[in-house]
Amino acid sequence: MTWLVLRQARAQIIFMGVLLAALGVLLLVTGLDAASYISAHSQRGACPGTGNACEEFQWALKARYQLVYMIIGILPMVAHVLVGAFWGGPMIAREVERGTAKLAWTQSITLRQWLSAKLGIAFLIVLIGGLVFSGMVSWWRNVVDQVYPVRFAAVDVFNVTGVSPAVWWTFMFALGAAAGAVFRRTLAALAVAVSVGLIVLPVFSFLRPFYADPVRSVTVDTDAFPRDLLMAGMWLPPTGKEVAQPTSPKCPLSLYADSVDPRYLQCLKGEGYRYVTYHHPSSRYWEFQWKEAALLGAMAVLLTGVTVARTRRLRAV
Amino acid sequence: MAEQSALAVRDLGKRYRKVWALRDCTLSIPVGRTVALVGPNGAGKSTFMNMVVGLSKPTTGDIEIFGSRMRQDGPSLARVGFLAQDKPLYESFKVSEMLTFGRKLNPSWDQALAEDRLAKLNIPLDRKVKALSGGQQTQVALTLAVAKRPDLLVLDEPLADLDPLAREELLQNLGEVSADSGITVIFSSHIVEDLADTCDWLVVLNRGRVQLSGAIDDVLAGHRLLTGPDDHAGQVIADTDVIADRRRNGEAKLIVRTGASAVPEGWRVDPVALEPLVLGYLRRPESGRPAEQTTMSGGRA
């Protein structure tokens, strides 16, 4: 069965391999270049930090590797959808559509052997592909992150590093396969994988902040926590009750340019106001990665259950 | 009863939602026969075959292949070779890869047999399946089913969509396959003329029921063509179960069962040909009863 599964998925495996290799070359070249660029401009002392020098250098770095940032930002979405639509989708649907299921099911193997080989091997390859992808991207991010750290929960960090790509690809594969088994049409499976995939991805970005209760921190520095996921900011007056907007008569907002005017913040600080944040520290990265993996993994298991049940029904008809 | 059955089905039925595609189907086919399964479109031929090869589960009844119950498991499936009606193959595979497919998925696969067969048919192994003609694709699909070395080979409309030459070739080929290996072959068709030379057993399926199942020689011997005056035909019809009734220019041609009644005076008795006999049955779905089918093979010549 292994031979058959690999032969049938040859196009997908080659496509994924070529894409990963091309991305690897791009990341390796730009990553090495970025490392030497960073050390050549010796801004390490200033970055990461809040000074103007660091900010300028961050912008320069971002401009220099705009293309790579863009690719990393878009790829998770594209890759998820491709895996679901062109690998998971046709897995059962095309066999039913073209009648080749009848060919496979009348060889000397059981449906269980056929299904477990087809699904198992594909899941394994998709998982390995996702891990290779995240490994490469993580390495690249590590190079530039010493200068330009990004919030850990942002889509172009969270979804392209850690176990996230592997888990997402597995989920999308399971989604495509289930859609194919339910609708028995490659095109319908493709449409479902694309549309559901494009809905689920932003839904999870929205859900992510709620994987845990945010940490409450009281500080005087409003620029802290650059890598954290900020949920809310409040002001704590000397009287002790948190408010969204300071009401200090000594520092009326109308006197300043806006609510982030440094002089305004300075005035509030002088009045004894402190800043309260509700946030997820970047140390929660792995906790969030595993929580999302558990959620998506459970959904993938459910969807695979649907695929198995539907395919068994097709055989019993 | 000493003769072992290649295929024995009892009370076999298949219901799709509320419609019965096949009902009360009981028949038994001896080992080594080449069986023509005949019936109009929608008679239940494919339904019957899908259940026999384990692609579909019966609603009622059971199926025995060489004395053991047909299941959807490895040992059962290994005994049965199947060619589905649309002759499915993996289009993007080379012919040689289709053979690898057969080899990897079947313990009793005969690679030499497959290669010889395709070589004889001049089908190149390095050609992609989708680059082959329809007839060649059918031959590759048939080769897969044959090289699996099954004891029972089931072919669903193998002759459909073939030009007359390819059809002739395939039929001859099928004859060779069953003669060489002694396997039991069942194939379905709705064209009766194709079958007489190749087959030695006939099953007529009509409106989801078995009308006739028996050795072709016995079936032919069990029927007679009576030719006589039109105006006396009524008496014959009243006496016996008439399979076919053709009237022309005051003359009646009736196909009846041998020995069912005395031949009236002045009527000519001839042996009957297979095609008009089968057509006669197909036109009268109510003819033929399960009780008679089992005795038909007993030889009532």
TrEMBL record, chain A:
The keyword Transmembrane helix is assigned to this record: yes
Species in which this protein is naturally found: Streptosporangium fragile
Keyword terms, alphabetized: Membrane, Transmembrane, Transmembrane helix
This protein's name: ABC transporter permease
Residue ranges of the TM segments: 67-88, 119-140, 152-175, 187-207, 293-311
Superkingdom of this protein's organism: Bacteria
Automatic annotation (TrEMBL), chain B:
Alphabetically ordered keywords of this record: ATP-binding, Nucleotide-binding, Transport
Keyword Transmembrane helix: no
Alphabetized InterPro entries for the sequence: AAA+_ATPase, ABC_transporter-like_ATP-bd, ABC_Transporter_VariousFunc, P-loop_NTPase
Source domain of life: Bacteria
All residue ranges annotated as the ABC transporter domain in the record: 7-232
GO molecular function, one term: ATP binding
Family matches, as CDD domains: ABC_DR_subfamily_A
Gene3D superfamilies linked: P-loop containing nucleotide triphosphate hydrolases
Membrane-spanning segments: none
Family annotation (PANTHER family): ABC TRANSPORTER ATP-BINDING PROTEIN ALBC-RELATED
Protein name: ABC transporter ATP-binding protein
Gene source species: Streptosporangium fragile
